Amino acid sequence: MSSRLLSFVGRTGRRRLMSTAIKLTTVEVNDKTGIATLTMCRPPVNGQNLELLLDIKSSINEIKNNNSRGLIITSASPKVFSAGLDILEMYKPDQQRLRAVWTELQNVWCDLYGISVPTAAAINGHAPAGGCLLATACEYRVMVPNCIIGLNETQLGIIAPKWLVSGYLNILPKRVAERALTQGRLFTTDEALQEGLIDEIANSKEEAVDKCVAFIGTFAKVNPVARALTKQQFRADNLRQFHKEREQDVDDFLSLVNRPEVQKGIGIYLEGLKKKANKQ
Ligand SMILES: CCCCCC/C=C\CC(=O)SCCNC(=O)CCNC(=O)[C@H](O)C(C)(C)COP(=O)(O)OP(=O)(O)OC[C@H]1O[C@@H](n2cnc3c(N)ncnc32)[C@H](O)[C@@H]1OP(=O)(O)O
């Protein structure tokens, strides 16, 4: 949860500042279907800063504990599912915070990847890098047209670690995954469907959510315990490997991000993003 200072005029006529907690995610459970929708709400692009990651984690845990029949993840932004890690967290970073950001990204991934209920991503906008990570941790993906999705880390001079790549490898043939990762390729919606990175295209967010609901509905007559154990069987090796390496992975991430040439690259990339945004 992040906090914001609200200014108001109190009874004495003096202006006061009040700190309020703002959640960057919402969870809504549909009474009829029992399916929970987790919506990311950090405008403009759901950049994954520490606070958003903490809220996603707490929402996944809420869904784990409220007997929901399934989880759909989506975004409140009209054009972007998530732009991935907030690049400002990686540029000239505070070391303790950077460590916490990466640890929470790991937590979000393993909670979403390992949750027993069926999961689906209603990708209602662009989903590069960490956005793609969230989508590929799910069991099903529906995306709106004319957007991009993929792991573009090499374009930023950083390397997606094995646990992050495992979502890709669950979905794409190894050959396609290797080429896409080494190129830092971002797939258009049509290309993503063609390669199997997404399962369906929908014309709107509402249609994407409906298609996710239909996917989760396919398990209605399947024993949920048998389903969950089967899912775990498929995902256990990746999770075991991740837990073995997670601490080393945090150290590797920090030392990579702190390299002067990587800092320089991130700075240039950020400038490019800002220039592009100002031109629009
Ligand atoms: C061991 C090491 C392992 C490393 C593994 C790393 C794993 C994950 C890393 C990441 O997730 S790195 C993040 C990579 N993300 C990107 O490269 C996406 C960059 N963004 C875009 O391409 C576009 O913004 C978009 C998502 C396609 C959306 O385009 P749109 O035209 O709708 O919006 P913009 O005008 O470009 O942006 C609006 C506004 O947001 C700022 N912004 C965009 N993305 C980010 C971001 N990831 N972090 C921080 N800020 C971002 C952008 O600069 C604009 O800001 P203003 O100029 O308006 O202030």
Automatic annotation (TrEMBL):
Keywords: Acetylation, Fatty acid metabolism, Isomerase, Lipid metabolism, Mitochondrion, Transit peptide. GO terms for cellular component: mitochondrial matrix. It is found in: Mitochondrion matrix. Pfam families: ECH_1 (PF00378). Pathway: Lipid metabolism; fatty acid beta-oxidation. InterPro entries: ClpP/crotonase-like_dom_sf (IPR029045), Enoyl-CoA_hydra/iso (IPR001753). Signal peptide: none annotated. It catalyses: (3Z)-dodecenoyl-CoA = (2E)-dodecenoyl-CoA; (3Z)-decenoyl-CoA = (2E)-decenoyl-CoA; (3Z)-octenoyl-CoA = (2E)-octenoyl-CoA; (2E)-tetradecenoyl-CoA = (3Z)-tetradecenoyl-CoA. Homotrimer. This is Enoyl-CoA delta isomerase 1, mitochondrial. It comes from Drosophila pseudoobscura pseudoobscura (Fruit fly). The lineage of its organism: Eukaryota, Metazoa, Ecdysozoa, Arthropoda, Hexapoda. The gene is LOC6902773.
